[in-house]
Specification:
The complex is a heterotrimer of chains A (188), B (430) and C (114). Helix content of chain A is 66%, strand content 11%. Chain A is an alpha+beta fold and 188 residues long. Chain A is rod-shaped. Chain A starts with a helix and ends with a strand. The mean pLDDT of chain A is 86. By secondary structure, chain C is α+β, with helices and mostly antiparallel strands. In chain C, strand 1 and strand 2 form a beta hairpin.
Chain lengths: 188, 430, 114
């Protein structure tokens, strides 16, 4: 009774060894798999982050483009308003807006509507007539511009009107060439 | 025959009443200035006299247009006391009246003077003016007032003051404003307020101690009152829109002014005690430039409610408004004389702006000036002269014209522009 | 001459002398009447003047005002300037009493610019 047991033991050893090697190769496999998974996850994360970053960059780029467009648009509006001038002229004894004045005011309306700034409208007259009546006439002109701007959509609280009557002429001589320059509303 | 021719001549200037009483009719008077000599006043004080009193009286009477003073060079003697007067010296140079005077100084100045009728060789009147030493010029003006009243019947307005706005243009192109008060002859200007912001519409309180005006110093027009002696100021309004044209009522208790806070410029009344505002006019047109009638019962104001500026009258008791001026397309900025009858205003004719006088009784309008950019008339408190501003070249200067268009002169022009004159009331002696 | 004619003649002479005196007085007042700038043609003031036989003015009052204080006062000033109408002294006392002891004086300019 001896040979049978040794075979059995060897078989067990072989079996154990196989098991061990199988386990260890499994562990290694698992480890490798885990490592691979981690690496994959990291890679995915990195990719995701990269994607987000790329998206953010794209959004930023888009925002910047939009802002750039807006700035350019605003610049165009400012240029338009600047080209239209800040002075609107009037006929003698009149506070009616001419077509030219209206077109010029439109440019300023567009500019104001694009932002939240306030504006000050200063009314003036030429020197003829009495000073105190002219103060009222200057106000009438400033109000005419204000009313038109409000009707065009500018909120009234953003517009301040003031009259200087004949007190602040831009041209000091007597005669229509000076007077016509003084009959005005200025926007500031 | 004789009787008939007598009756004919009689009819020229006499009328007979039923009881055969004769009435003498005077239909003409004198227009030529009356010759008057004002001999240099003697000075009894220490050092040199504070001013040339006789010269001031001379200039005042000359400026009235009704007197032509004798030049000092032509005087044959220079009396300063009654016993020194030789009437033949004055008849020799054909002067009608003679004024002599003597000034002494104690704690105050005392100016004694007398007025003499050269033709009849008698003294008509003597008087005395007492004043502070610093007010020598005003004392002389009061002597002139006295002489003027004795010879014309109406009080003189020489011892009065003017307030006006003086504007100078600085090299940087910005205007500089000075609210200035001066004697009625333009002398002794004193700056009450100055700055880069416009000052408008100065006016006097009835007691001559305060002024009111509009200032843009807060970057918006607001009305202020200021005591002359102390410079103490009070802001009276701070509304949105126009704050303009402050004018004291004759009793000094309220002020009419213009506000546009309720939509369009309207006349308001401010009770100076309660500080309450009362709205007087309600119209979507421009109502502005109020001025008081001397009885304080109504206001005249400018309104374009009829299309173009005209003068209207507002009756305070009833609120009734009626139009006053109908001639011409533009009548504005009325100022009423103390007689309540003559109204100085700005009248446009053929595109030119003149000073005119409107008679409230006859409703006749008379243009007084020939210049074309006239504004801001103000009447002397004795109703004789109208002072106003007129454009000369690129500047504004002050002119004066008699209410009948008789005498005209302009005030010495300083550098810069002078505008918006307001003549003080008769001043109470200091 | 019958009585009416004689009376007429006397009346004529009396009126003539009175008329001359009145003319002198009118001229003197005219030379002393300085009108205020606010005076206008058509304004009218009626004064009552009281004299004594030497011609000295002892009383001036306004019977009917022009409505303008300045105008009224200028008229009063004119009379005050004359002060003495010495021409009445030549008249018989009865004429003085009848015509010049107290008489109306009307100022109504026609020569003013406006």
């Amino acid at each position: 009774m001896t040979t049978k047991n040794t075979l059995g033991k060897a078989a067990v050893v072989v079996l154990l060894a196989t098991l061990v090697s199988a386990c260890s190769s499994n562990a290694a496999k698992e480890e490798a798999a885990a490592q691979a998974a981690t690496a994959r996850a990291a890679a995915e994360q990195a990719a995701a982050a990269e994607a987000v970053a790329a998206e953010e960059r794209a959004i930023e780029k888009e925002k910047a483009m939009v802002m750039q467009e807006q700035r350019e648009a605003k610049r165009r509006l400012m240029d338009a308003a600047s080209a239209a001038g800040t002075v609107f002229l009037f006929d003698y004894d009149s506070s009616t807006l001419s077509d030219d004045a209206r077109a010029a005011i439109d440019a300023h309306v567009a500019l104001l509507m694009s932002g939240s700034a306030n504006a000050r409208l200063e009314g003036h007259t030429d020197e003829r007539g009495t000073r105190e009546y002219n103060l009222a006439l200057g106000e009438r002109r400033a109000n005419a511009v204000r009313d038109y701007m409000v009707a065009s959509g500018v909120p009234a609280y953003r517009l301040e009107t003031i009259s200087y009557g004949e007190e602040n002429p831009v041209a000091y001589g007597s005669g229509e060439s000076s007077w016509s320059k003084n009959r005005r509303v200025e926007i500031k | 025959m004789l009787l008939r021719s007598c009756v004919f001549v009689l009819g020229l200037f006499l009328t007979t009443t039923s009881s055969a009483q004769l009435e003498i009719q005077v239909t003409r008077g004198i227009d030529n200035p009356t010759s008057i000599a004002i001999a240099p006043f003697a000075w009894d004080g220490l050092g040199s006299a504070p001013t040339d009193f006789a010269q001031i009286v001379d200039s005042d009477l000359a400026r009235s247009g009704q007197f032509s003073p004798v030049s000092r060079r032509d005087m044959l003697s220079l009396p300063a006391a009654r016993e020194e007067i030789f009437y033949r010296d004055w008849r020799a140079i054909s002067t009608r009246y003679l004024v002599i005077g003597r000034v002494s100084q104690g704690t105050q100045l005392r100016v004694e003077f007398s007025l003499h009728d050269v033709e009849r060789g008698v003294e008509l009147f003597s008087g005395q003016v007492v004043s502070a030493k610093s007010e020598a010029r005003m004392a002389a003006h009061r002597v002139a007032d006295s002489i003027y009243e004795k010879l014309t019947g109406i009080p003189g307005a020489f011892a009065t003051r003017l307030i006006y706005v003086s504007v100078t243009r600085n090299p940087d192109g910005k205007d500089f404003y000075r609210l200035t008060v001066a004697d009625a002859d333009g002398r002794r200007p004193i700056v009450l307020l100055e700055g880069r912001d416009p000052i408008l519409a100065p006016s006097w309180s009835p007691d001559g101690k305060e002024v009111a005006y509009v200032s843009f110093e807060s970057s918006r027009p607001a009305i202020y009152r200021q005591v002359l002696a102390t410079g103490k100021r009070e802001q009276l309004t701070n509304f949105q829109g126009l704050n303009n044209s402050p004018v004291w009522s004759p009793d000094g208790k309220s002020m009419a002014l213009v506000l546009s806070k309720d939509g369009s410029p309207d006349i308001y009344l401010l009770d100076l005690e309660t500080k309450q505002f009362k709205r007087l006019t309600r119209h979507y047109g421009i109502d502005t430039e109020p001025t008081w009638m001397p009885d304080g019962q109504s206001l005249l104001f400018t309104s374009d409610r009829g299309g173009r500026p005209q003068i209207y009258r507002y009756e305070l008791a009833t609120g009734k408004i009626e139009r006053v001026t109908f001639e011409g397309r533009y009548n504005a900025r009325a100022r009423v004389a103390e007689d309540g009858r003559n109204v100085a205003l700005v009248h446009q004719r053929k595109g030119r702006f003149h000073i005119a006088v409107f008679d409230l009784v006859t409703e006749r309008l008379t243009v007084l000036t020939e210049t074309s950019l006239d504004e801001s008339p103000s009447i002397a408190p004795n109703g004789s002269l109208v002072i106003y501003a007129t454009k000369r070249g690129e500047r504004s200067v002050l002119g004066a014209v008699a209410v009948d268009g008789g005498v005209k002169f302009s005030l010495p022009a300083r550098s810069g522009s002078v505008q918006e004159p307001a003549w003080s009331p008769m001043l109470v002696e200091q | 001459m019958d009585l009416p004619e004689a009376e007429g003649q006397a009346l004529a002479e009396e009126v003539s002398e009175v008329q001359q005196v009145a003319a002198l007085m009118q001229a003197r007042i005219t030379q002393n009447w300085r009108r205020p700038p606010s005076a206008r043609n058509g304004m009218e003031v009626l004064l009552e003047i009281s004299l004594v036989p030497t011609g000295d003015v002892v009383g001036i009052s306004v019977s009917s005002s022009s409505g303008s204080i300045a105008f009224d006062r200028s008229a009063i000033a004119a009379v005050e300037r004359v002060a003495q109408f010495s021409e009445v002294a030549v008249l018989p006392i009865s004429d003085f009493e009848r015509y010049f002891r107290r008489f109306p004086l009307r100022f109504k300019p026609e020569d003013l610019r406006y």
